[in-house]
Design a protein that fits this description.
The complex is a heterodimer of chains A (253) and B (474). Chain A has 253 residues and is an alpha/beta fold. Chain A is built from eight helices and twelve strands. In chain A, the strands form two sheets. In chain A, strands 6-4-7-8-3-9-10-11-12 form a nine-stranded mixed sheet, with helices on both faces. In chain A, strands 1-2 form a two-stranded antiparallel sheet. The C terminus of chain A is likely disordered. Classes of the chains: A alpha/beta (253), B alpha+beta (474). Chains A and B meet through helix 3, strand 5, helix 5, strand 6 and helix 6 of A and strand 8, helix 13, strand 10, strand 12 and strand 14 of B. Strand 5 of chain A pairs antiparallel with strand 12 of chain B, so a sheet runs across the interface.
Chain lengths: 253, 474
């Protein structure tokens, strides 16, 4: 509590950065564990950046799981801030510590901020991004609030980059819109190929990378290994492929 | 003129100066007074309003010291220890209090002495006196014995014994006083005479451990100036706390408006603080988040910063361990969020010793230390999917489950179920049973044809049993 934010240090590092024009800071990346995805991401998901996880309609829990997996990969062993929204809790259920534990996230690492106003959530996220000891901020955003415009997302991007804290926007019931995000993922559940009757295996996602500032996009079916804490390859069952309207919108954005 | 019913007759309970000059006195029967002054203006006594006014006045006196006690029905005791220097010396202080009260059209009698009782007695009988420390006996001796505010019987007994002043009573042997009037009476006399430290007064609000005040000749209005002033006060307060080796977990800033209105705003912290930057930041957050913003009106003429819930605190080394530094940063973030959004919104989860789904964790303010004696228990086995959902519905949502073909009807949509697993029977332990029926649930994990996974239960305590959706898995 005693230590003030090291402002002189920050100024020094900014000076240093200015003195070397053209030399961009090397981006710290967190491997997801899934080889093909890591390949497209050029090694992994950028830390100190803004990433958006969109839930396909009705697949909010899967998006929550995918975002939690990303957060675990991004945060290392640092604590996380989860900003929950009361409307999202009513509509899609509230983040459940017992479930997060089973998923591989120790709830003791989590600070949970329960808010009802979007404005407060963005403000809190901006504040939290200045705390370099935080590994990751996850913010639930239900619908398409006007407040979260391009300016607001740029502000978050800058704050994230400055202190190297990653931020995940968990977009529930939302349509894709313009943003300054580094990556945007569209997530829905994927049906499993059970080995036998009792095989109740790890969660499987059908994930599309629909926006990537640095490169290629793609679509994969991956499983989250709760045992190893990483994404792995998985096969989806040959079932009916549900067409989701937000696919097209996300691609258009 | 105020009258009140006492001893079965309407009697005067308060008289103003003019009435006193006409020979009226408190306790006089109203009929008697009316006979003397037929055009008497009488108002019925209203003790409730009097008490409210006194309490309002006590609030206002907060500007002189945070330790204000009521001496009902018409007195206030201010503990000025450590606060006099803000106003010059004691004479300046007394003059200022009297002046300001007079300006507000109160008639006031005040005195300063080393013990509350001595000051109280002097204020009523020799107003304006400032008794230097240790000279209480001299000042109090000439006062009538009533000034001790003993009960009527004891006072009467003193008078019967011919002891009409405090001085006369004090001239008797202590043993005689104890034998005749009891040890408690002697203690009261000692207090009035300034022997010993006196009983502590009973302040209206708990006294802070440390406080600093700053007055402004020119009331401050703008946010920037207020923030700078608060910072300056924090600097002084922190200097004191550093000297004492403590930090505060609660800080309260009081803003005294020139027109008498007072606004107090508190911030709390998970760990003791005594750093100006931290205090400044917390108040900045709190002030910015006020639903009802600080209204300076024509300006604040006094700001006080009080520290309470102080704890011993080690001087932190500059070369902090990385872990401790990170922990401190997180604690500071939690404090800032709590200052802005309220401490009940910034939460942490703590494990509990039960498998009951809704009771297996507790949610507590993150500012409070983690106290749980239990550890988190993973229920699933290796290579198995989670047995608890990521998103939980509170309360569980009623659904319909059809068996052939297996379908889940929820929120007006049907979902074809491809597989399910269970049951896992979860029942409330018998000691928490509320009704006659045990609260027993059979939980199932189910997957639909799009791969979505549901946490369903059948409530067996209902007749017929009813299905609910409790949560969703990834």
């Amino acid at each position: 509590m005693e230590a003030p934010p090291a402002i002189p240090d920050k100024i020094a590092s900014l000076r240093e950065a200015l003195a070397r024009p053209g030399l961009a800071k090397p981006v710290a990346r967190a491997s997801l564990g899934h080889e093909a995805v890591d390949d497209v991401l050029q090694g992994g998901l950028a830390r100190g950046a803004l990433h958006e996880v969109f839930a396909a309609p009705g697949h909010e829990a899967s998006a929550t799981g995918f975002a939690t997996g990303l957060a675990l990969r991004l945060a290392g062993d640092k604590p996380m801030l989860w900003i929950g929204q009361s409307f999202a809790a009513r509509e899609y259920g509230a983040a459940c510590p017992a479930g997060l534990l089973e998923y591989g996230l120790d709830p003791s690492r989590l600070i949970f901020l329960a808010l009802s106003k979007m404005q407060d959530g963005l403000r809190a996220a901006g504040d939290a991004l200045t705390c370099a000891s935080l590994g990751c901020v996850i913010i639930e955003i239900a619908g398409n609030p006007k407040l979260l415009d391009l300016t607001a997302s740029r502000r978050l991007v800058l704050a994230a980059a400055e202190h190297g804290v990653s931020i995940l926007l968990l977009r529930l019931g939302a349509e894709a819109e313009a943003s300054a995000a580094e990556t945007r993922w569209l997530v829905k559940a994927a049906a499993q190929v059970p080995q036998d009757e009792n095989d109740w295996g790890h969660p499987v996602f059908d994930v599309s990378l629909v926006r990537h500032r640095q490169g290629r996009m793609g679509q994969w079916v991956m499983a989250w290994s709760c045992d190893n804490g990483r994404f792995e390859t998985a096969k989806a069952a040959a079932g009916p492929v549900v067409s989701l309207s937000s696919d097209r919108q996300a691609e258009a954005a | 003129m105020i009258a009140e019913k006492a001893q079965n007759a309407l009697r005067l309970s308060a008289v103003d100066k003019f009435a006193r000059s006409l020979g009226l006195y408190v306790g006089q029967p109203l009929a008697n007074a009316r006979a003397m002054v037929p055009e008497l203006e009488v108002v019925p006594a209203n003790p409730k309003a009097d008490a409210a006014l006194l309490s309002q006045l006590a609030d206002w006196c907060d500007r002189f010291t945070p330790v204000v006690a009521l001496a009902a029905p018409d007195g206030l005791i201010l503990d000025m220890a450590g606060a006099v220097h803000f106003f010059g010396d004691e004479a300046d202080l007394l003059a200022r209090i009297c002046d300001e009260l007079l300006q507000r059209r109160f008639s006031v009698q005040a005195a300063i002495a080393g013990t509350a009782l001595a000051a109280h007695a002097l204020a009523r009988h020799r107003a304006g006196l400032i008794v230097p420390e240790g000279r209480e006996a001299e000042a109090v001796s000439p006062l009538p014995i009533e000034a001790l505010q003993l009960d009527a019987v004891t006072t009467h007994a003193f008078r019967r014994a011919g002891l009409k002043t405090i001085g006369q009573a004090a001239s008797r042997k202590r043993s005689e006083i104890v034998a005749r009037f009891g040890a408690s009476t002697l203690a009261v006399m000692d207090e009035a005479l300034g022997l010993g430290s006196g009983r502590p007064i009973n302040p209206r609000k708990p006294a802070p451990d440390y406080w600093e005040t700053q007055g402004f000749a020119e009331p401050v209005v703008t946010e920037t100036v207020i923030r700078a002033a608060l910072q300056e006060i924090a600097q002084q307060l922190c200097a004191v706390m550093v000297q004492e080796g403590v930090g505060a977990r609660r800080l309260e800033a009081s803003f005294f408006r020139a027109d008498g209105a007072i606004r107090s705003i508190a911030v709390e912290s998970g760990a003791p603080v005594r750093h100006v930057g931290v205090i400044d930041r917390l108040f900045h957050e709190r002030l910015a988040a006020l639903a009802d913003p600080l209204d300076p009106g024509f300006g604040f003429d006094l700001i006080r910063l009080a520290a309470s819930r102080v704890e011993k605190m080690q001087e932190v080394m500059i070369t902090l361990e990385a872990d401790a530094q990170a922990e401190a940063e997180i604690a500071f973030l939690v404090d800032r969020l709590a200052a802005r959004f309220g401490r009940e919104q910034v939460l942490r989860f703590q494990p509990q010793d039960t498998h009951e789904p809704e009771r297996s964790w507790a949610t507590t303010p993150a500012q409070e230390p983690a106290t749980s004696a239990f550890t988190w228990q993973v229920i699933r086995s290796d290579a198995e999917a989670p047995r608890r959902p990521l998103r939980l519905f509170t309360p569980p949502e009623p659904v319909t489950v059809e068996e052939a073909p297996p379908r889940l009807l929820w929120r007006k949509a049907a979902r074809g179920l491809t597989r399910w697993e269970g049951p896992e029977r979860l029942a409330s332990p018998w000691w928490r049973l509320q009704g006659p029926e045990p609260n027993t649930r059979d939980y199932f994990r189910a997957e639909d044809d799009t791969g979505r996974r549901y946490w369903l239960f059948r409530d067996l305590s209902r007749e017929p049993s009813q299905w609910f959706l409790h949560g969703m898995f990834a």
